[in-house]
Design a protein that fits this description.
single chain; mainly beta; Glutamine Phosphoribosylpyrophosphate, subunit 1, domain 1; five-stranded antiparallel beta sheet; 5 helices; globular
């Protein structure tokens, strides 16, 4: 598979929706993840990321303008021991709670489907990073309709062991703008992971469509120690 330029992929797509990147830094020292949200409606754009323990949550930038918190307010990132969970919805909590009961990532997601936002039926995309004893692996998942048929749910999981340095995988909700919005297709895209945390954060944020981008979360986790650095960028400040 050809390695894509992440900045180019983002800059050429006005509306990838919500996206997750997981991979490994160029120097091989860090597990890397990024999660961004975009919005077309006033309600979707009226959000910010805020820290919540070891994770983050979304909240209304202006509470007086919040119309419907359903599918808008959730915790995109939670940490369960040596596992970091990143998703585009409240399935973060499902994964956290069921894995805490010794179920697997896939088992937890079998209890969920795509979002109930007809006619888009937005896919639920999820990722999990596992770091232990200097070893690192991750998995990604997408739950989506079968070509827009809300009676059929397709479930795909992609697992990556000992990911190579300077590379990652990118999965997002939509192939581009449209009405209804076309769901992501295929396996997560292979992308380059370049620079330190600030360079990477700036490259991703500056590549997202200026009108539609809302918030970005980036984390670099030291694979040897488990210590991490986080960056949060909000358009609403």
């Amino acid at each position: 598979m050809k390695k894509n330029d992440l900045s180019k992929l983002l800059s050429e797509n006005a509306y990838p929706g919500r996206g997750i990147v997981i991979g490994r830094s160029t120097d091989g020292k860090y597990a890397v993840t990024a999660y961004f949200i975009m919005g077309r409606s006033t309600n979707s754009r009226n959000r910010v990321f805020v820290e919540d323990g070891e994770g983050i949550r979304t909240q209304a930038f202006d509470p007086s303008k919040m119309e419907d918190p359903h599918l808008i307010i959730y915790s995109p990132v939670r940490v369960l021991g040596n596992k970091t969970i990143v998703t585009n919805g409240d399935q973060t909590d499902t994964i956290y709670e069921l894995m805490d009961q010794q179920q697997t990532f896939e088992q937890a997601l079998r209890t969920r489907e795509f979002e109930d936002d007809a006619p888009n039926y937005t896919p639920r995309i999820s990722g999990i990073m596992h770091i232990e004893n200097g070893e690192y692996n991750f998995a990604m998942s997408i739950l989506k309709t079968d070509d827009g048929d809300a009676d059929s749910c397709e479930r795909f999981t992609f697992a990556y062991s000992n990911p190579r340095s300077g590379a990652g995988r990118f999965i997002h909700t939509y192939m581009g703008d449209g009405n209804p919005l076309p769901s992501f297709e295929g396996e997560p895209e292979l992308v380059g992971i370049e620079g330190d945390i600030d360079t990477f954060t700036n490259n991703v944020w500056n590549s997202l469509n200026e009108d539609n981008k809302v918030s970005l979360f980036v984390r670099f986790i030291d694979i040897e120690t488990g210590k991490y650095e986080t960056r949060i960028v909000n358009k609403n400040v």
